[in-house]
Amino acid sequence: MISASLFTAFALMTAAAALAVLWPLGRTRALKGAREADLAVYRDQLAEIGRDRESGRLPPEQAEAARIEVARRILAADAGRETVADPAAAPATWRRRAAAVAALILIPAGAAGLYGALGSPEIPGAPLAERLAAPPDRGDIAILVRRVEDHLAQNPNDGNGYEILAPVYLRLGRPDDAARAIGEAIRILGPTAERHSARGEALVVAGNGLVSADAQRAFKAALALDPKEPRALFFSGVAAEQDGRPAQAAAIFRRLAAEAPAGAPYLPMVRAALARAEAEAGPGAAPAAAAPAAPGPSAADVQAAAAMSAQDRSAMVRGMVDRLEARLTEDPNDLDGWLRLARAFTVLGETDKAQGAIKAARAAFKDNQEALGRIDAAEKDLARGG
Amino acid sequence: MIAEIGQYALILALVLSLLQVALPGWGALKGDPVLMGTAGPIAFALFAFIAFSFGALVQLYLASDFTVLNVVENSHSQMPLIYKITSTWGNHEGSMLLWVLVLGLFGALVALFGTNLPDRLKALVLAVQGSIATAFLAFVIFTSNPFLRLVPPPGEGRDLNPILQDPGLAIHPPLLYLGYVGLSVSFSFAVAALIEGRIDAAWARWTRPWTLAAWVFLTLGIAMGSYWAYYELGWGGWWFWDPVENASLMPWLAATALLHSAVVMEKRDALKVWTVLLAILAFSLSLVGTFLVRSGVLTSVHAFATDPARGVFILGILTFFIAGSLALFALRASELRQGGIFAPVSREGALVFNNLFLTAATFSVLVGTLYPLALEAATGAKITVGPPYFNLVFGGLMLPLVFAMPFGPLLAWKRGDLLGVAQRLMLAAGLAVVAAVVIAAAADGSSVFAPVGIALACFVIIGALTDLAERAGLGKVSAKVSLRRLAGVPRSGYGTAIAHMGVGLCLLGIVCEASWSTETIASIRVGDSLKVGTRTLTLERMENRTGPNFRARVAVFAIREGAVAKGTLEASRRTFAARQMGTTEAGIRTYGLSQLYVSVAEETADGHVSVRASYKPRVLLIWLGAVVMAIGGALSLTDRRLRVGAPKPAARRPAKPEPRPVPAE
C-alpha cells in the first residue's frame, strides 16, 4: 500500500502542479497585442538605424533607405491588424472558472489514474549501499550472493565459498555462473563425483535442457569416480535419449530406478523418464501415434526441475500428475498413462489413489487380456517398490 | 520511494502538457488574455516536473537502486561516478527522458525570454510546444518507462554498454538533443504563424535566436559524435555515412538553410513562405532522425533496444506532426503576404542559391538513407547505399555551394554587383590558385582532388577574411580608422565570417585526411616494429591492467623518428565482465593538428597482434572547423541587435570616432 510519506509527497506535487495553472488564472492582465509587439520591434529597429548612422557605421543614404523600409513595415503591420483589435477579446470570468475547475479535476484525477495503472508504491526503494549495510538475515539473497562474490574476489582460493554459491546461482537462474563456480570448487577442493555431476547439471540448465558435449564429459567424469552417482546416471540417460538411443536410455533409467533407495526424491522423475524412453524404444509399447499422448517432462521441464528446490520439484511433479489424471478421465484408453499415474501416486505416497488408478485401468481394458496382464504385473511391482 | 516520486512527477508532467495545449490554445482562439497567460507558468511547471523526474532517475543511478529495471539493465555499482550519471541517458528509456527534458527546457526558455512576444503568438507557440511534449511524454510513459520496478532486486547491474563508457556520452547526447529539440521552437513558431495566418519580419526577429542556438548545439553535437566514433570505434574513420549519422546531418543541413533564409526574411521581409516551410522541415527531419534511431529500424550503437511497439508509436507521432504541419502549411501558406523584392544577383539571391543547394543536399542524404529501408520493406532486398553515392552526390552539391560562399556576404542587399564582388575576391582567388599549384607540384600532380580541395578551402577562408577587411575599409582608409571600423563590425558580421572560415577549415581537414593519410596494417609480436610515415612503432610489451569494471590488455609501443625515441603510445582492448563485451581503445598521439592513430586487435595464441597504425595529417581540423562554425554561430547569437538590411551599396564615408553603441533592446 502507499505509505504516508509517499502520499504526502504526491499530494504536495499535485498541489504544486495545480497551483501552476490556478495562479495565472487568478491574475488579470491586459492583452499584449500583435500590433504593439510588432511596433516595439520596428521602433527598436528605427532607433538602431539612427544610432548606426550617427556613429558613422551606416552611410546616410543607406540609413535613409533602411528607415523607409522599416516605415513600410510599420504601415503594413498597422493595416493587417484591424481584425485582431476585437473588443470581445476581453477576459471572460466563466472561461476562467471553467479552466480552473478543469485543472482542479484533471490534474489530480489524471495523475492518480495513470499512477494507479503504472506505479508500484508497494515496492520500497533499495539503494545498494543500504542493502549492503543491512543485517544479513533480511532474506536479500542477491545481496548475500554479492557478499560471497566480493569475499571470493578477495580470497579467490576459498573453495567452500564457491561450493556454497553454486546451487544458489542455479536457483537464481544463473546456470552459467553456477557452472563456473563449481568449476572453481573442483579446481580448489578437488574433484568428486557429486561436484562433477552438479557442474554437468548446471551446464544442462544453461543449455536449456540439452545435454551438451561439455555436460556429457562432466557426467562421465562423475561416473568414473562413482558409477552409481544418480544424477550423472540420470543425465546420461537423458543424453542417450536426446541422441536417439531410447533403448539405452531406458536401460539406464531402469537401473537407476532399481538402485534408488526407497522414497528418493528423484524417483518420480526417473520413472517418468523411463516410461517415456520405453514408449519410444519398446516394440511392445504403442506405436508412434501414442507418443504425443504420453508426454513425459519436456526438456524445459527437466531444466526447470533441476533448478528447483525439493519442495518446488514435488509441486511440479504434482502438477504433472494432476494433468495426467485429468486427461485420463477424459480419455481412459491409454494403458501406459494409467500405469504411469499409478506409479506416480505410489511415489507420492498416495496408495489409495494408486489403487484407484489400477482399478480404473482394469475397467477401461477389461476385454484386453494382454493389457490386464500388464496391469497385474504393474500392481505387483508397485506393491514391492512402494 | 524516489523511483515512485520520479514516476509520479513524469505523469504530472504529462497531465500538465495536455493543459499547456488546451488552455493557451483556447485562450488564443477566444482572444482571452488570462487564459493565454497560463502558457508561461504551465511551461515552467512542466519543465520543473520533468527535471524533477530526470533528477530522480539520476539519483537512482547514483545509488545503484536495483529495484529499478532500467538501472539494473544499464548500470554497474563499480562504475566511476561520471558513468553512473551518464548511464542515465545511455539507454533508450533514459535518453528519451533526456529528450523530453530538453523539450521542457526550451518551452520554459520561450516562456522566460518571450516577454516581448505578442500574447497570441506566445500562447500558440507554447501550445504547439505542449503538444509535442504530450506526444513524447506519452511515448516515454507508455512504451519506454524508465521507472519500471523489479522484485527481488539483483545484487549487481548488467552494466552499461562498454562502448558508451566514455566521457563522450556526457557530452554528445545532451548537445545533440539541444540541437534536435531546439529546432522544435522554430517549428512551433512556424506552426503558430500558420495558425494565425500572419508572419512578418518581427516574427523572423523572434525566431532567429532559437534557430541559431539549436544550430550551434547541433553542430557541436555532430562534431562530438564524429570525434567519438573516430577514437572509440577503432576504425579511424570520422564519418561513415551511417544512417544514424545521416539522421543528424539532415536536420543540420535544413537548419543551416533555415538560418540563412531567416536572415533574408528578417532583413528584407522576403522568402517568408519558404522560411516557414524550412522551419517545419528542419524539425520534421529531426523527428525522422529520432524515429530512425529510436524505433529499431536501424541497428547500430545507438539503437539501445528494439521494440516494435515503440517504432509504431514514434511513427504515429512523426506522421501526426509532419503531415499535420505540412497540411496546415498547404492550407494557409497562400494567405501569407509576400514582401521585399530583389534582383537575382543580390545578397538575397545568394542566400536563395545557398538554400537551393542545401535543400538538394538534404534531399540527397534523405534518399540515400531511406531508399535501402524502403527497398527492404517493399522487396526484402538488402542493399547498402555507401560512401560512393554520398561522396559523389553530396560532395557534388556541396562544391558549388562552398565555392559561392565567399560571394554571398560581399553582395549588397536587393541588387548586387557580381563583377565588383569578384574583383574584391581576386586576392583570395589568387592565393587559392597559388596554393593549388604548390600542392600539385609537391604531390607530383597525381591527384586533382587534393589541389582543388585545398584551393577551395583557402578561397573560403581568405574570402571570409576579405569580407571583414572590406567592412573595415582596409587599404581605403587609414589603419587607425579601419581598426576602429573593424571593432565596430557587429558581432553577427564576425559570426558570419568566422562560421564561414570554419567551413573552410573543416574542408581543409577533410582534404588533408583523405589525401595524405598513411596506414600500415601488420601482425607483429613483442619486439617487432612497423613503420608508419616517418615514424617507427615498436611493440615493447603486452600487459594486463584492471579497471573498475573491466580488464584491459594493453599494447605498449615505443615511437621513434629515425633513431630518436619519442615516447610511448598505448592501445588496448578492454573486456567488461558483466556484459562479456569488449571495446577497442585506440592509442592516439597528437602532433599539432595531426594525429598518430594506433588500434590493436585480439591477440592470437602464438602472441601475434594485429596492429593498424595510421598517421592522419591535419585531421583535427575537421572537428576544429566545426567548433569554429559553432563559435561563429554563438557570436552571432550574442548579437542582439535588430537587423535591417540596408539596401544599395554606397560610397563609404569616414566614420566619426564614436564608441560602439549598446545593443538595442
Automatic annotation (TrEMBL), chain A:
InterPro entries xrefs:
C-type_cytochrome_biogenesis, Cyt_c_biogenesis_CcmI, TPR-like_helical_dom_sf
Q: Which SUPFAM superfamilies match?
A: TPR-like
Tell me where in or outside the cell this protein is found: Cell envelope
GO cellular component, alphabetical, reads: cell envelope; plasma membrane
Q: Which UniProt keywords apply?
A: Cytochrome c-type biogenesis
Is the keyword Amino-acid biosynthesis assigned to this protein? no
> What is the first-listed, main subcellular location in coarse terms?
other
- Single GO biological process annotation from the record: cytochrome complex assembly
NCBIfam families in alphabetical order:
cytochro_ccmI
Name used for this protein in its record: C-type cytochrome biogenesis protein CcmI
- Name the gene for this chain: ccmI
TrEMBL record, chain B:
Give the GO terms filed under biological process for this record. Answer: cytochrome complex assembly
Where can this protein be found? Cell inner membrane
Function according to Swiss-Prot or TrEMBL: Required for the biogenesis of c-type cytochromes. Possible subunit of a heme lyase.
- Give residue ranges for domain Cytochrome c-type biogenesis protein CcmF C-terminal: 315-640
Q: How does it sit in the membrane?
A: Multi-pass membrane protein
* Cellular component aspect of the GO annotation: plasma membrane
Supply the name of the protein. Heme lyase CcmF/NrfE family subunit
State the similarity comment. Answer: Belongs to the CcmF/CycK/Ccl1/NrfE/CcsA family.
Question: What is an example of a GO molecular function annotated in this UniProt entry?
Answer: lyase activity
Keyword vocabulary terms for this entry: Cell inner membrane, Cell membrane, Cytochrome c-type biogenesis, Lyase, Membrane, Transmembrane, Transmembrane helix
Q: Where is the Cytochrome c assembly protein domain?
A: 89-295
- Show the stretches that span the lipid bilayer: 6-29, 41-62, 96-114, 121-142, 177-197, 209-229, 249-266, 273-292, 312-331, 352-373, 393-413, 425-443, 449-469, 619-637
The organism is Xanthobacter tagetidis
Residue ranges, annotated region (Disordered): 646-665
- Domain of life of the organism encoding this protein: Bacteria
Q: Where would you say this protein principally sits, based on its record?
A: membrane
